[in-house]
């Protein structure tokens, strides 16, 4: 509905929004007496300046891709899944159980089984809210919030009373056997001469996440299920007319959503910690909401937004490591990024659009435009 | 330079991270030296921070928290020339010093005081997040109480199951009120930042609170019976002072070496009677002598004095 | 369970319900006007921080309350700007506000007080103390009613009474005033309001202002009203989300909101008293199960007794006339 | 200018929505105390123009004069202040408010609600008495029929004391009797000196009631003529730009076997109200059964049962074999598999996904179809797009762009997309609900032709419409529904609007002259008009 070229919409507008976020972050930094320029340099250097930095950025991004996709899939069916956090926790449980108790001949088999287990547990945790929504009309927002809390309690119970090896202090499972260790980027990309990604947690799960993006894209826009899912999300009454069962779609959408959230565990639990610790999700479920919303629920958008948040996370960590900036400052920067790129994007878009319209409009008012009839 | 890594709670957790921070600051103030530090915000950063400091040549590297056990086990062999100090966990590597505290013993002592100070024969315990470490506190405390007054009741509650439990003074206050309505008149808080809510409410309701980790008697003079001090600051201070060539291996901080204990100062001098003083000192001596075995919850995940 | 114990549990219920209730009513105004607000948590946190900070600095709890309201209003203004003026996504804006408050409160507190994101502990005078209602002491010994009056009704802070008074006030505003009619209408069908010659934007902003004021009070209650005595990072601990759940539970109605919040408060109060649960059901409830209990009960009640909750129809959507 | 002062004068109004130029340099004068008609195809810009006059949209260019005085109308408040009232095409009512609340909304006289409501109640009663516009002030909007909602909209305008009343397609949803009553009211208002602008697609209404009529096409005002000096064919031609057939060309039906047999169909809704109370009828191959009736008498439920998304009891046979009514082994999908196609009554809520592109909507409901499937999982989007393009061409959907979102098509073209999708399935049984509601006459002509063509291919059609004209001209047989029952069946040649009207009111004894002489007179009058035009 406008004369603005697509590139301006997908690149220029977010870029200006990011600059605004950076500007306000700089103001906050100045206010607490820090040098914003130095901070920016540290962040960029620390998050994309080396393979090591990338190793962290991509690790975080992997988490956010999974939870972002989870929220996005549910969004397409107009279900607001706030429960990715809990679902990812349960996914961690599933992954931990198979890794601890099944003997694997090779990591690749372990990975496949762990994906299934994580997805299964995550999906199971989403199934109850989904069922209650479909059958009882219980609002999915409430039930998924509640299930986050319940998941916490369940995991504390299991880790403290059941899964914790005796004699250790940490409420965590034992470390997984070597056969269940995933190859890290370090192992995958280092050669004789050069060591890459040393010590960084990024691992093969990243490629699973990328595959998940492609899978979700195909699911949503290429398959019949995706077609029905989106149709239901747009209009429940029309879906009924077309013979699309609301119960089935709600269940399927939430199961897929929960499954994706559960899959996050292959990255943080299996790939990084190599054991299940308390609170292993660390808020990635909530970041996933922001990621999905900013990515406009499109897998590619989710991918980009997850990268952005990976960058902020890792850059922020470096900031805390090398400067005396409180770690909460990173949360502020994240908030500003979400705000400007996600919620206030029209503030940027409208003037840019006006500029394009003014430049793009030739001085011929008699342009015959067919009204859409 | 030495370096210190705080756990996820952050260095101002009013608990052992803060204590560690105080120890480091104390060293810096005394020697004029400087140290590197970082607050983690994610589990994945443990390894990152350890390697960063090791590679930057920081030595020794102190870390506060049992969650470092696994990463440190992995990393320590990579940096044989660096000495690591881990607090609250045991890592069996040649270049690691493991410092653990007998919190159960210290808690036993404040349990003795609590039992004697209580007029209702009911005392409370408010824990932060329900993890083994906190149960260790609770268990030692309950043993001390029961040993002193077998008729006493210990009301124990945990604030929650998420890390938010460390920062929820509102709920801590409510728990304290709930314990008061169950007749508790001494409440021991082992709850990080939430503990402030416990001590505040205890003061408001005119009963006794017991502080934890550092000496918190000053928070509400005359209302904090004592504090179970856990000398994380000393551990950090010592590590920093001894520098690169500190002794590795297991180091147990107990009553004997004043790693744990109860706090006495002007703020609570009037609250502890001669009789109490005698009793608690006797108990301390008995523990040192091995006459009293305070059961450590984490040794076998069970507690003789209280159920979880 | 004797009367006194019951009263003590109910007393805790009232206190625990108060911040929820204020936040829930705040959300009610906002969502009734068609602006979804998952930023309640952040606004409460902002309110809690600034109220405690100013109370600590000035020693005046009333100035603190005012400051808390200002903080929540500023965050509300961001939400309004994003969701009304710039027709942005209300959910994203809410998420951003939550993060923003979570980070900024600590950053400011740290650089201001240097106590690790805490404000100093508030002494007497800089926090709201419980009020003893007239005659409470005198009537204390009257059987049944006396204890009820003394234990349950008397002794709360002024903010608790304000919160409970706001319920009928909300009802009255919503259903008995011109403003309420318009507010409800704008959340259902903004075009109807617009064509009736009333400003959609003005109404929505006014709702957001009310929401800010109420969340500000809720925050102040958390940080400066007895038994609280200061701000500590993340001290809202998910209460904003629970308030949101209560709002949906209450189907966006004021009296229902009261009952929903009291119910949540009651479940939380029960969690504080495992001894009572044990006395009633005869079984010791395992600790983690206990802390999950309020949430499990919520789901059970929701699934079992509360039917479908239909949100205000225009909620969440910016009012766009021209595609 | 020596002309008398116009009540409304618009000068050079232009308005663009993005690239769509909805109004181009439009000027129009409306004399006080007259009824002025505006007609035009779907999307011609009628609603936009009136919305500008009412301050809902802001014109890009142009001036507005009210009673000769230049008036800025930046918002609806200004319009109301200038004495303008408007009944929108899509009602602007708050669905879960009562009638009274909707009426006072924005016109309250104090900050307190109760006095306002009390006054409104009194005034409503006065208005009701004065104009025969009775409504239950305490009824909730979503629970009353569209006819009633229409009244509420008019009352809203009258309550605000308007001198100028704009009605945008007010009769689209009304029954004939309701429409007649509306026109009586409009005439009264006119006699009181009020100025009325009426937008409609029904030329008969224009001829009956207006003094002058303006014709719009593609955002431009193409003509304004005096009604007395024009004729429906001329208007139709002005509107569409070509000659339009105002009568359905139809060969006699060639009846085949019974395609659909319905026996003892009963439906109870969620509230426990019996919506269908024992329905029996048949449709043969090659036959159009028209189902007449006032909206809300069970027609919608019947369509939903046959369409597979409402459960019922009774028996329904399709081509002699029973279809499942319990919902356990059936849904919209299985109905389609059995050869039932369905053009739903509400294209926007059911027939289309407004946020899907045209091509995606082409597969809607048929997304299981083999020709749209690449394999068990994936759909063949290219095939669907090609199919869509073909259908758009055949059905003259404008613009013929498969990538456009459904919501960006005008109502008539949206309807064409639905009709194309369903008719092109070549179903054994076609269910059609309100096929031409809100559709311009050019498109009506086309849709009617397609329905008849399907019949001529030997298919059975169940046509549900509240437009008696449509029913009379398309059906081979007419059944009339009232209160969940079929009151009787008639042949179009052997009945008239009067008789059908009585049946629609539940009066089966149509041989006797009915006591409601007044109603009868109108119906007779309508019959005359209908005969002349359709
Ligand atoms: N709010 C809007 N935003 C964008 N485009 C619009 C909007 N409203 C109308 N249009 C477009 O403007 C043109 C004129 O629309 P308008 O509703 O005025 O037509 P109309 O003559 O009333 O048609 P109908 O007979 O179907 O009611 C159409 O192409 C329509 O798609
Ligand atoms: N070509 C078709 N045209 C119309 N309906 C069909 C067609 N094929 C299948 N159906 C109907 O669609 C329904 C489901 O069919 P099918 O088993 O092929 O899909 P499914 O994979 O179970 O569905 P979904 O994709 O919704 O999971 C059945 O009721 C079937 O009768
Ligand atoms: Mg299938
Ligand atoms: Mg129109």
UniProtKB/TrEMBL annotation, chain A:
<feature type="transmembrane region" description="Helical">
    <location>
        <begin position="200"/>
        <end position="220"/>
    </location>
</feature>
<feature type="transmembrane region" description="Helical">
    <location>
        <begin position="12"/>
        <end position="33"/>
    </location>
</feature>
<feature type="transmembrane region" description="Helical">
    <location>
        <begin position="53"/>
        <end position="74"/>
    </location>
</feature>
<feature type="transmembrane region" description="Helical">
    <location>
        <begin position="86"/>
        <end position="103"/>
    </location>
</feature>
<feature type="transmembrane region" description="Helical">
    <location>
        <begin position="276"/>
        <end position="295"/>
    </location>
</feature>
<feature type="transmembrane region" description="Helical">
    <location>
        <begin position="109"/>
        <end position="128"/>
    </location>
</feature>
<protein>
    <submittedName>
        <fullName>ABC transporter permease</fullName>
    </submittedName>
</protein>
<feature type="transmembrane region" description="Helical">
    <location>
        <begin position="140"/>
        <end position="160"/>
    </location>
</feature>
<keyword id="KW-1133">Transmembrane helix</keyword>
<dbReference type="InterPro" id="IPR001851">
    <property type="entry name" value="ABC_transp_permease"/>
</dbReference>
<keyword id="KW-0812">Transmembrane</keyword>
<feature type="transmembrane region" description="Helical">
    <location>
        <begin position="249"/>
        <end position="270"/>
    </location>
</feature>
<keyword id="KW-1003">Cell membrane</keyword>
<feature type="transmembrane region" description="Helical">
    <location>
        <begin position="302"/>
        <end position="323"/>
    </location>
</feature>
<dbReference type="Pfam" id="PF02653">
    <property type="entry name" value="BPD_transp_2"/>
</dbReference>
Automatic annotation (TrEMBL), chain C:
<dbReference type="GO" id="GO:0022857">
    <property type="term" value="F:transmembrane transporter activity"/>
</dbReference>
<keyword id="KW-0812">Transmembrane</keyword>
<feature type="transmembrane region" description="Helical">
    <location>
        <begin position="287"/>
        <end position="306"/>
    </location>
</feature>
<feature type="transmembrane region" description="Helical">
    <location>
        <begin position="153"/>
        <end position="174"/>
    </location>
</feature>
<dbReference type="GO" id="GO:0005886">
    <property type="term" value="C:plasma membrane"/>
</dbReference>
<keyword id="KW-0472">Membrane</keyword>
<dbReference type="InterPro" id="IPR001851">
    <property type="entry name" value="ABC_transp_permease"/>
</dbReference>
<feature type="transmembrane region" description="Helical">
    <location>
        <begin position="241"/>
        <end position="267"/>
    </location>
</feature>
<feature type="transmembrane region" description="Helical">
    <location>
        <begin position="12"/>
        <end position="29"/>
    </location>
</feature>
<keyword id="KW-1003">Cell membrane</keyword>
<protein>
    <submittedName>
        <fullName>ABC transporter permease</fullName>
    </submittedName>
</protein>
<feature type="transmembrane region" description="Helical">
    <location>
        <begin position="49"/>
        <end position="79"/>
    </location>
</feature>
<dbReference type="Pfam" id="PF02653">
    <property type="entry name" value="BPD_transp_2"/>
</dbReference>
<feature type="transmembrane region" description="Helical">
    <location>
        <begin position="91"/>
        <end position="113"/>
    </location>
</feature>
<keyword id="KW-1133">Transmembrane helix</keyword>
Automatic annotation (TrEMBL), chain D:
<keyword id="KW-0762">Sugar transport</keyword>
<dbReference type="Pfam" id="PF00005">
    <property type="entry name" value="ABC_tran"/>
</dbReference>
<dbReference type="InterPro" id="IPR017871">
    <property type="entry name" value="ABC_transporter-like_CS"/>
</dbReference>
<keyword id="KW-0677">Repeat</keyword>
<dbReference type="GO" id="GO:0005886">
    <property type="term" value="C:plasma membrane"/>
</dbReference>
<keyword id="KW-0472">Membrane</keyword>
<feature type="domain" description="ABC transporter">
    <location>
        <begin position="260"/>
        <end position="508"/>
    </location>
</feature>
<protein>
    <submittedName>
        <fullName>ABC transporter ATP-binding protein</fullName>
    </submittedName>
</protein>
<keyword id="KW-1003">Cell membrane</keyword>
<keyword id="KW-0813">Transport</keyword>
<dbReference type="InterPro" id="IPR003593">
    <property type="entry name" value="AAA+_ATPase"/>
</dbReference>
<feature type="domain" description="ABC transporter">
    <location>
        <begin position="8"/>
        <end position="243"/>
    </location>
</feature>
<comment type="similarity">
    <text>Belongs to the ABC transporter superfamily.</text>
</comment>
<keyword id="KW-0067">ATP-binding</keyword>
<dbReference type="GO" id="GO:0005524">
    <property type="term" value="F:ATP binding"/>
</dbReference>
């Amino acid at each position: 509905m406008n004369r603005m070229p697509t590139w301006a919409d997908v690149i220029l507008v977010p870029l200006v929004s990011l600059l605004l976020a950076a500007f306000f972050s700089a103001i906050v930094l100045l206010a607490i007496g820090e040098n914003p320029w130095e901070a920016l340099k540290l962040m960029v250097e620390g998050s994309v300046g080396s393979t090591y930095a990338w190793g962290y950025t991509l690790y975080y991004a992997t988490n956010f891709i999974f939870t972002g996709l989870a929220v996005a899939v549910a969004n397409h069916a107009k279900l607001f899944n706030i429960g990715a956090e809990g679902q990812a926790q349960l996914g961690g449980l599933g992954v931990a159980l198979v890794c601890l108790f099944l003997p694997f001949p090779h990591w690749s088999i372990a990975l496949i089984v762990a994906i299934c287990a994580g997805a299964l547990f995550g999906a199971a945790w989403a199934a109850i809210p989904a069922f209650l929504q479909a059958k009882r009309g219980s609002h999915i927002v409430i039930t998924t919030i509640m299930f986050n809390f319940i998941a916490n309690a369940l995991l504390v119970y299991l880790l403290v009373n059941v899964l914790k090896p005796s004699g250790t202090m940490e409420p965590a499972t034992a470390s997984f056997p070597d056969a269940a260790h995933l190859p890290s980027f370090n192992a995958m990309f280092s050669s004789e001469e050069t060591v890459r990604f040393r010590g960084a947690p990024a691992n093969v799960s990243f490629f699973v996440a990328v595959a998940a993006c492609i899978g979700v894209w195909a699911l949503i826009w290429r398959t019949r299920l995706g077609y029905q899912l989106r149709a239901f999300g747009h209009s429940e009454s029309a879906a009924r007319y077309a013979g699309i069962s609301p119960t089935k779609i709600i269940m399927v959408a939430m199961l897929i959503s929960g499954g994706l959230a559960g899959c996050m565990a292959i990255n943080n639990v299996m790939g990084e910690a190599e054991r299940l610790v308390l609170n292993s999700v660390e808020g990635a479920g909530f970041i996933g909401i922001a990621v999905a919303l900013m990515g406009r629920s499109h897998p590619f958008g989710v991918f980009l937004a997850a990268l952005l948040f990976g960058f902020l996370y890792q850059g922020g960590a470096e900031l805390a490591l090398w400067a005396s900036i409180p770690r909460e400052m990173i949360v502020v920067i994240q908030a500003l990024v979400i705000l400007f790129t996600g919620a206030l994007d029209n503030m940027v878009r409208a003037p840019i659009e006006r500029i394009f319209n003014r430049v793009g409009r030739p001085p011929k008012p008699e342009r015959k435009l067919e009204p859409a009839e | 330079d030495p370096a210190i890594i705080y756990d996820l709670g952050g260095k101002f957790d009013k608990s052992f991270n803060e204590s560690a921070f105080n120890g480091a600051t104390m060293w810096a103030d005394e020697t004029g030296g400087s140290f590197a530090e970082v607050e983690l915000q994610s589990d994945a950063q443990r390894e990152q921070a350890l390697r960063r400091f090791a590679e930057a040549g920081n030595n020794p590297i102190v870390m506060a928290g049992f969650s470092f056990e696994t990463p440190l086990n992995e990393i320590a062999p990579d940096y044989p020339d660096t000495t690591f100090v881990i607090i609250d966990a045991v890592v069996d590597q040649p270049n690691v010093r493991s410092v653990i505290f007998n919190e159960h013993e210290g808690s036993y002592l404040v349990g003795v005081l609590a039992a004697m100070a209580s007029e209702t024969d009911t005392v409370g315990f408010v824990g932060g997040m329900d993890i083994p470490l906190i149960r260790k506190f609770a268990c030692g405390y309950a043993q001390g109480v029961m040993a002193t007054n077998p008729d006493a009741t210990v009301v124990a509650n945990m604030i929650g199951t998420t890390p938010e439990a460390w920062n929820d003074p509102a709920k801590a206050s409510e728990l304290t009120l709930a314990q008061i309505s169950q007749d508790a008149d001494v409440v021991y808080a082992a709850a990080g930042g939430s503990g402030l809510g416990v001590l505040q409410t205890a003061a408001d309701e005119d009963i006794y609170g017991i502080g934890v980790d550092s000496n918190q008697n000053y928070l509400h003079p005359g209302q904090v019976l004592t504090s179970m001090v856990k000398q994380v600051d000393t551990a950090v201070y010592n590590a920093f002072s001894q520098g690169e060539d500190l002794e590795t291996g297991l180091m147990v901080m107990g009553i004997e070496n004043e790693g744990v204990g109860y706090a006495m100062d002007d703020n609570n001098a009037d609250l502890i009677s001669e009789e109490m003083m005698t009793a608690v000192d006797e108990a301390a001596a008995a523990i040192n002598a091995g006459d009293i075995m305070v059961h450590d919850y984490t040794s076998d995940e069970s507690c003789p004095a209280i159920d979880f | 369970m004797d009367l006194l114990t019951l009263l003590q549990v109910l007393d805790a219920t009232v206190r625990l319900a108060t911040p929820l209730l204020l936040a829930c009513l705040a959300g009610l105004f906002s969502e009734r006007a068609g602006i979804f607000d998952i930023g309640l948590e952040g606004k409460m946190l902002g309110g809690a921080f600034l109220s405690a900070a100013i109370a600590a600095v000035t020693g005046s709890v009333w100035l603190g309350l005012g400051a808390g309201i200002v903080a929540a209003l500023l965050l509300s203004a961001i939400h309004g700007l994003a969701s009304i003026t710039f027709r942005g996504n209300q959910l994203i804006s809410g998420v951003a506000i939550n993060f923003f408050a979570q980070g900024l409160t600590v950053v400011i507190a740290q650089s201001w007080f240097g106590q690790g994101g805490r404000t100093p502990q508030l002494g007497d005078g800089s926090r709201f103390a419980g009020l003893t209602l007239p005659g409470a002491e005198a009537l204390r010994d009257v059987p049944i009613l006396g204890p009820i009056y003394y234990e349950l009704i008397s002794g709360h802070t002024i903010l608790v009474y304000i919160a409970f008074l706001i319920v009928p006030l909300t009802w009255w505003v919503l259903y008995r005033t011109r403003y309420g009619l318009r507010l409800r209408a704008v959340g259902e069908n903004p075009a109807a309001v617009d064509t009736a010659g009333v400003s959609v934007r003005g109404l929505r902003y006014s709702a957001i202002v009310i929401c800010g004021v109420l969340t500000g009070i809720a925050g102040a209650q958390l940080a400066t009203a007895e038994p609280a005595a200061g701000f500590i990072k993340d001290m809202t601990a998910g209460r904003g989300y629970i308030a949101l759940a209560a709002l949906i539970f209450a189907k966006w109605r004021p009296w229902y909101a009261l009952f929903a919040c009291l119910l949540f408060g009651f479940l939380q109060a029960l969690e504080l008293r495992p001894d009572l649960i044990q006395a009633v059901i005869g079984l010791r409830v395992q600790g983690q199960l206990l802390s999950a209990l309020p949430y499990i009960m919520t789901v059970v009640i929701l699934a079992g007794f509360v039917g479908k909750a239909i949100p205000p129809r225009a909620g969440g959507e910016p009012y766009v006339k021209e595609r | 200018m020596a002309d008398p002062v116009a009540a409304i004068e618009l000068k050079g109004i232009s308005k663009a929505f993005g690239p769509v130029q909805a109004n181009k340099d439009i000027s129009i004068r409306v004399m006080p105390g007259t009824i002025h008609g505006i007609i035009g195809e779907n999307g011609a810009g009628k609603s936009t123009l009136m919305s500008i006059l009412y301050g809902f949209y802001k014109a890009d260019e142009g001036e507005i004069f009210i009673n000769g005085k230049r008036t800025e109308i930046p918002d609806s408040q200004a319009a109301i202040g200038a004495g303008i009232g408007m009944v929108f095409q899509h009602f602007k009512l708050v669905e879960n408010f009562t009638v009274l609340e909707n009426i006072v909304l924005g016109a309250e006289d104090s900050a307190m609600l109760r006095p306002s409501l009390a006054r409104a109640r009194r005034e409503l009663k006065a208005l009701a008495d004065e104009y025969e516009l009775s409504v239950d002030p305490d009824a909730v909007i979503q629970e009353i029929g569209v006819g009633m909602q229409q009244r509420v909209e008019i009352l809203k305008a009258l309550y605000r004391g308007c001198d100028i009343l704009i009605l945008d397609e007010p009769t689209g949803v009304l029954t004939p009797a309701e429409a007649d009553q509306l026109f009586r009211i409009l005439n009264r208002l006119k006699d009181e000196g009020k100025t009325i602008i009426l937008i409609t697609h029904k030329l008969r209404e224009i001829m009956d009631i207006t003094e002058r009529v303006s014709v719009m096409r593609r955002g431009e005002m193409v003509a304004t003529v005096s009604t007395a000096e024009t004729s429906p064919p001329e208007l139709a031609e002005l509107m569409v730009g070509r000659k339009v057939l105002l009568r359905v060309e139809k060969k006699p039906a060639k009846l085949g076997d019974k395609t659909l047999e319905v026996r003892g169909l009963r439906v109870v809704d969620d509230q426990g109200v019996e919506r269908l109370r024992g329905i029996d009828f048949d449709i043969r191959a090659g036959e159009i059964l028209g189902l007449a009736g006032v909206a809300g008498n069970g027609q919608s439920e019947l369509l939903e049962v046959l369409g597979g998304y409402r459960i019922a009891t009774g028996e329904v046979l399709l081509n002699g074999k029973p279809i499942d009514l319990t919902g356990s082994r059936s849904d919209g999908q299985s109905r389609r598999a059995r050869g039932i196609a369905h053009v739903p009554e509400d294209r926007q809520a059911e027939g289309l996904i407004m946020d899907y592109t045209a091509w995606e909507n082409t597969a809607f409901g048929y997304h299981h179809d083999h020709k749209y499937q690449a394999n068990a999982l994936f759909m063949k989007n290219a095939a669907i797009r090609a199919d869509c393009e073909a259908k758009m061409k055949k059905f003259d959907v404008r613009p013929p762009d498969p990538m456009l979102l459904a919501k960006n098509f005008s109502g008539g073209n949206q309807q064409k997309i639905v009709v194309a999708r369903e008719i092109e399935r070549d179903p054994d049984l076609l269910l059609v609900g309100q096929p031409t509601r809100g559709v311009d006459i050019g498109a009506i002509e086309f849709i009617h032709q397609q329905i008849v063509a399907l019949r001529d291919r030997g298919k059975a059609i169940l046509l549900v419409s509240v437009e008696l004209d449509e029913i009379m001209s398309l059906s081979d047989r007419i059944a009339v529904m009232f209160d969940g029952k079929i009151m009787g069946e008639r042949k179009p040649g052997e009945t008239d609007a009067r008789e059908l009207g009585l049946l629609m009111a539940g009066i089966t004894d149509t041989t006797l002259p009915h006591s409601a002489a007044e109603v009868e007179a109108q119906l007779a009058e309508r019959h005359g008009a209908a005969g002349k035009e359709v």
